[in-house]
Amino acid sequence: MKRTFIIICSALLLTSCANEFNRVYKTTDFDFKYEYAKQCFAMGKYGRAVSLLETLVTLKKGTDEAQESLYMLAMAQYMNGDFESASETFKKYHTTYPKGAYAEQAMFYVGQALFESAPEPRLDQSPTIGAISAYQQFIDYYPESELRPKAQERMFELQDKLIEKELLSAQLYYDLGGYFGNINSNTESNYEACIITAQNALKSYPFSQHREKFSLLIMKSKFELAENSSEEKRADRYREAEDECYGFINEFPDSKSVAVAEKFIAKCKKMTKE
After folding, report:
1. Is the Cβ–Cβ distance between 178 and 224 less than 8 Å?
2. Of 81, 188, 201, 226, which shows the fewest CB atoms inside 10 Å?
3. Cα-based distances in Å from 187 to 16, 170, 179, 268
4. d(CA 77, CA 86)
């Protein structure tokens, strides 16, 4: 009975709160509605704050609360997990009030909202690229900001995600290469795609922590490309693969894959002598 009583009281309380919110939502007393929206925000009821502020930002244009209402809407969207809308609203604030009281924070949170929405590396990385661009724009605008170190830290995290995306792509091309028969155009194109993807990644991110993995994929792909080549291309490709193997050993002398490189070199030497 005690439990039932608690459930009934909770239901009545929720109903009462819902009725109160509906009354506030429909009221034409916009000052009261604005104060209620601020109260909702302060209490962490961000969904309700968003519902109220979406109409209030238009009604408050030209008033003293205009800046605050727009920034609060963006922050409520952000705290409510609607990062795409939050990013756009923060951007709108900075465009509308470039010298406003919240301009610096708004520009930072354009990137922060995109950062929060950035997907895992296997998926499309458009939000990741957008977040990097937004953080860079923030740093350009506010080079002395206290938030600059955090923006730079986030940029490095996002770049790591892009690098991992490239590594997964290169690995996929390499894995696909082995599914086709020898001297097959599909096989060659996959190994070539792996090499190009990995080489471009190394050019774009020369100090990546995955540099050895990219280099290993290039080396292995060049060897497999030689193995699957037609007669007229085979000798040249074995020489290219051999050079790549020596380059790998020179750059990563302590790598566990040195034995693989040495094995490839022996095979390349044998094939170019025949």
Report:
1. yes
2. 81
3. 68, 14, 8, 19
4. 5
Distance of CA 61 to the CA centre of its chain: 34
Claim: this prediction has a pTM higher than 0.90: no
Place of tokens 């923060």: 90
Structure tokens given for 228? 């699957």
CA distance 133 to 127: 10
* Alpha helix ranges (H) inside the chain: 2-26, 30-42, 46-59, 66-79, 83-96, 103-117, 126-141, 148-177, 185-204, 211-227, 231-251, 258-273
| pLDDT given for residue 222 in this prediction | 97
Q: Determine contact, residues 214/170, Cβ cutoff 8 Å.
A: yes
CA 244 to chain centre: 32
